[in-house]
Amino acid sequence: TLPGEAQFCVRAFAQALEVVPYTLSENAGLNAIEIVTELRRQHNEGKTQSGINVRSGKISDLSDENVYQPLLVSLSAIQLASETVRMILKIDDMCGAI
Question: 33 with 47: CB under 8 angstroms?
Fold first, then answer.
């Protein structure tokens, strides 16, 4: 666990990342709450390769189905989103000071 305010920042960042599987399942016409809950359960059980299979509408082991995503793609998307939020917060701070 992290001390002080850092733990709140990390928790908020993790909650923001949960939008990704929620949106994916919603866009695939699946019950997003059930899918995300099942995905979280499987990840907590140590099944880290589990992911949303939009074709079957279930959570499955994506490595068994040869589904892989390059790390650079994920890191770039997260970095870009984080930078965007930082810029929005800076603009918000400047507007509040006026």
Answer: no
